[in-house]
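ok so i was messing around last nite and threw this chain in just to see what happens. nothing serious, just curious
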Amino acid sequence: MSHADMHSYNKFAEIYALNDLGDSNYDASPEYNVPIAREKAANLRARRQQLAIMRNELLVSLQVVNSIERDVVDGEWMTWLGEELYRCDQASHILAATSDEILGKRVGDIEKLREYCMDCNRIWGNVKERFTELS
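result:
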């Protein structure tokens, strides 16, 4: 049975949810005329505030972890891009030394390689530009 199906839980939720837990008069509302009820309300408020603090700390920690992960992935991406640029440079040297007859047979493949290497160089240029702007 879920909490939504229980009338007593619904009443409890109504009483506790309608009051602002940040309000210093929270436990002074009419529902808490009995001292023990007032004490329980104060304890509940304190525990919920502690949970809110823990939740916030957890979210901040997750944001830090996500940021570190982004930096790690970006670093790996830059390393990989550098390796691809090196391969493109090597490929251009090989193609420069290849006969026109052989090159004529592989025009489609060479065009794809050229487009790929141009893309890598364009991205590298953008990265260099961003670094220049930072300095």
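not much to say yet. Residues 19 and 134 are 49 Å apart (CA to CA).
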